[in-house]
Amino acid sequence: MPSTATMQIEHSYSELPATLFELCAPTPVAAPSWLAFNHQLAAELGFDPALAETAAGLQVLSGNQLPAWTKSLAQAYSGHQFGQLSPRLGDGRALLLAEIIDHNQQRRDIQLKGSGPTPYSRRGDGRSALGPVIREYLVSEAMHALGVPTSRALAAVITGENVYREHLKSGGILTRVAASHIRIGTFQFASMQPDHTAIKRLADYVINRHYPACAESDQPYLALLNSVIQAQASLVAHWMSLGFIHGVMNTDNMSVSGETIDYGPCAFIDHYDPTTVFSSIDQQGRYAYRNQPMIAQWNLARLAETLLPLLAEAEADAVVIATAALNAFPEFYYQAWQQRMSAKLGLPSTAAAKLLAEQLLELMAANKVDFTLCFRSLAFAVHDAFDPQGPAALFTDQQGWRVWAAQWQQHLTGDVVEIRQQMNASNPYFIPRNHQIELIIQQVTEHGDLTLFQQFARDLATPFSETDDNQRWAEPAPASEMPYRTFCGT
Ligand code: AMP
Ligand code: MG
Fold first, then answer.
1. What's the CA-to-centroid distance between 34 and ligand 1, angstroms?
2. Which atom of ligand 1 is nearest to 253's Cα?
3. Residue 149 near residue 106, CB atoms below 8 Å
4. Sequence spans of domains, the chain
């Protein structure tokens, strides 16, 4: 058995009411091999070095042989999927192995995704295709490097087995690390249990684990609701400022910790169009780019409903309290958005900067301008709106650009070098471009060639600086590749 000397392991989730999870073992796979191991994250976690990209580690992270420090369980949750309530979802293909206390004394879940059927699988096979594992590995790690709160990827394994989706595909297992996997849907599930203490115990657990300051409040459960509202407002504003579309903002895919989780058909906007939807399963465009803040608020209302019994004795009073809390969401959101967008423009956070950002976005939409390229090149236009390295050439409406840029320049004050540095720290040089992710997936799944995957996994760590290696990742997609679609392909 591998040593656990370096690992601080706990299993606090398994002390919650038994209705909230099922103990369950992974199903072994035929011939596992490594796709990736994240040594840096492993070090941060204090993960056992004996398991880091070793044969022993492969047995553990493929689910073939679980050591004694694991206590694998599937978590129960409900979820509003595209607006419809499914009372019983739960981890149908994921298992929590353990909680690890990392070097910063933070508790983090170690979870296998794609590890075989669980009591919550319904008709699913409990597996993941390799393509979505690759996407989640790269995009979640890129999001982290971009500064966005997110689940992380510790490892990815190729199972050596096929899964049947539209046709046969290689299978994969992701080892996911998250502050927790407690979702709005977890609260929905708990609130529907005959055991009326379940919701309170879950809420107390989440306060203790994620928002300990709430315990000091006169109204800890209202403080909890407010904290989740603020965390989600700030998260979604961050997404919006980078052109990120989650793709499936069902209540079971929204973590109460405020991290981005459950990367499915997610993607970054190429040319700016606020109505963009990438997911082939989102036919109504419910989770379009521009709807994300509103959907977050809708999801938070579902969370608030579950907390009503804890907010006041009389339900009518609880509804008033919850409604007031939810009504503060837009204010938190716009504050966070204004801050992010102002920084992207090299300006202090003011209403004037917010207006300039809105006007620029309008102009970008009208001119179908690439989101990431435009913001990144803006730093070159601080002095000269028509600097050849600036965004001027991206706009067909040259007059519109001229007028906007002149107004923007009037608001810029201070040292030019500092302004540019600030802008470059908010406007990534590259993001995981959809066509690149597709190419990487194709290289791995069709040709067994990991080269491109490994290059991107290495380069994604520094998205805000241009280097000799990362220039190709900044190239926009050829026009022929639009419009891009992601398939849930799970
Ligand atoms: P997702 O769309 O990945 O967020 O998953 C929604 C629900 O379906 C969750 O309860 C998943 O655990 C479950 N699910 C997704 N794919 C599978 C699968 N291949 N086998 C079993 N359950 C699955
Ligand atoms: Mg999910």
1. 23
2. 4
3. no
4. 8-181, 185-336, 347-484
